[in-house]
Each structure stands twice: as C-alpha cells, then as structure tokens.
Amino acid sequence: xxxxxxxxxxxxxxxxxxxxxxxxxxxxxxxxxxxxxxxxxxxxxxxxxxxxxxxxxxxxxxxxxxxxxxxxxxxxxxxxxxxxxxxxxxxxxxxxxxxxxxxxxxxxxxxxxxxxxxxxxxxxxxxxxxxxxxxxxxxxxxxxxxxxxxxxxxxxxxxxxxxxxxxxxxxxxxxxxxxxxxxxxxxxxxxxxxxxxxxxxxxxxxxxxxxxxxxxxxxxxxxxxxxx
Length: 228
Ligand code: NAD
What we know:
Blueprint: E1 3-8, H1 33-36, H2 39-44, H3 46-62, H4 67-74, E2 80-85, H5 91-95, E3 100-102, E4 105-112, E5 119-121, E6 139-143, H6 153-161, E7 165-169, E8 191-194, E9 206-208, H7 212-226
Parallel strand pairs: 1-2, 1-7, 2-3, 7-8, 8-9
Antiparallel strand pairs: 4-5, 4-6
Helix pairs in contact: 4-7
The structure holds nicotinamide-adenine-dinucleotide.
C-alpha cells in the first residue's frame, strides 16, 4: 500500500468549535504565549497554566470531530495513512483514524513534573496543584510548551521521508520544528495544502484554499481516484 502522510494543525479543529491560535478570534488574542505555554510561565504561576489547560480540556470534551477529520478516515480504504498532528485534542482518534502521532502532546494525558516518561491517562479530569504523579511529583499537562524539546519530531521526520503523498491541513506553518517536516518529504511525492488563507510554503504544492470541512473531501476524493 502507498503511504499518505498528513500534517494537521489547529485549523482542522476550528469547525468543531476549538479556537486556533493565530486567527483574529484565536487564543493568542486572549492570552500571551509567555503567560500560559512555556515552562517559565508554569514555574511563575502554575495555577494560571493548569487552569488554562483545564479550560482547553473542557472545550475539547464538548467538541465532536467535523467533516475534515471524518474524510481522512476514508483514505484508510486504499492507503497506509499516518496523521501527524500539532493538535492536543483527540478529534482524529474520535473520528476513527488509526495512526495518529501527536507532536505537541495530548490534553487527555498528564505527566510527572520530575520524569517526562511517567505519563498517566487523565481523560477529561482537571489537574490541580497538589495532584501527584505515581512518583510523588506534581502532575503537569502532557503538553510540549514553547521552548521545550519535541520528542516525536524524529519519528515524524522518518514518516515524512517515506511519504508517497503528503497533505497539510489547517496550519499557519509558523511553529517549528513541525513546519520544517515538509522538507523531509521526497521532491517526487505530490503534496496538497488545505487552508482558507494563503500559507507560505517553499515547495511545489497543490493548493485547496478552503476550510477543512469542504477542502479535505476534495483532496481525499482525488487521492482515492488515484489509488484505483
Ligand atoms: P495556527 O493557529 O497558527 O494556524 C491555524 C491555521 O488554520 C491558519 O493557517 C488558518 O488559516 C487555518 N484555518 C482556520 N480555520 C480553518 C478551517 N476551518 N479549515 C482549515 N484551516 C483553517 O495553528 P497551528 O499552525 O496549528 O500552530 C499553533 C500551535 O497551537 C500548534 O501547536 C497547535 O497544535 C496548537 N493549537 C492546538 C489546538 C487544538 O488542539 N485543536 C488549538 C489551538 C492551537
């Protein structure tokens, strides 16, 4: 089976009611990244940071996958499909996608403040000061904050090297190293971009300038047609 690798960002979840970061009604309009999404912020004001992610978790648990997430599942009929998402929600999994790699962590998990490898499932539960990991350390969100290492970038780069087709959906390509993944995709592998805005990408790419809710279906139909 040929491999389709898909890189998604906040835009694919926008039509599920989850705010993106950089659009005019996005989260950065309400919060400063330095106050809620860095380790320094967490050291300075852990309650504010925990509350910020508790609110994100509540938002995600009210949300349902949209047509963009659902269309990607159809691709599995004909292709070996790997999703690499920058999103911390679980809407790809809820829609039924089988292989999802989270680059920036997951809201449904927490980890020890002392040991990055001690990860626990929390589902929709909140994290509060005083909540402890099994090693006795404070629980923190299992999120890659700005300035922190991205442990899944190496497996993601390997997946991109093996891609026969590559699709980018709903990301402003502003956040590195995720935005650099496209450069691992072989030059001979066709690429698509689905985003209602113009996103600067320095390689040949088929552009579908639409929201995920309508644009993803067009790419999926084309890929399924090619797979015949
Ligand atoms: P971003 O906010 O920088 O960019 C969002 C992109 O989505 C923009 O290019 C915008 O034009 C596009 N977009 C908006 N509505 C869309 C729609 N309906 N369909 C398709 N595209 C649409 O987001 P980013 O590039 O993902 O980077 C921000 C960081 O914040 C990432 O780490 C991201 O995962 C994280 N984040 C995650 C969530 C989530 O888990 N759902 C939400 C907000 C931010």
